[in-house]
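USER: I would love a firmer grasp of how sequence relates to backbone shape in proteins. This is the protein in question:
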Amino acid sequence: MKKIIVHLKSLSDTTRIICLSSPPVNEAKIHEIFGNALDDQARTNEGCRIYSEALVDLCKEMDVEAINLWTAVQQRDDWANSCFIDGIHLSGEGCKVVVKEILKVLKRVDWEPSLYWLTMPAEFPEDSPYYVVGPDGKTTLNVSGHVCIWQKEWLNI
């Protein structure tokens, strides 16, 4: 893993890396759905915890951003049932945890240019006939600075 990170960091001065650790798993759901078919793979919460802690420690040593998904997912009381579709793969709710954690990093880090979505300049800030037409049917609206309803949940990160 260390060799991979060193190689990635040497790609360019503008390369940005965020490592994501493994999330926990719902072992009971895995056995319910897959039976003993996955036993030889030994995917356990304990194994995921050990891997996650090692990844976070390595990233600190290498000065690379890391997100500990094992801890982040478990912040929800109902994580075992709401964050996975089958005990291993993330559900929509589990993916929201990942997005939230990535946005926290993007907002916190001092990268140039910033990759945080609200600080990025609009690609086409000038008026354009291709913008959304306003209620009067004539005026166009530049929506590049508009925050949609679905985006508002990410504003408090």
Observations:
- The first strand starts at residue 18 and ends at 20.
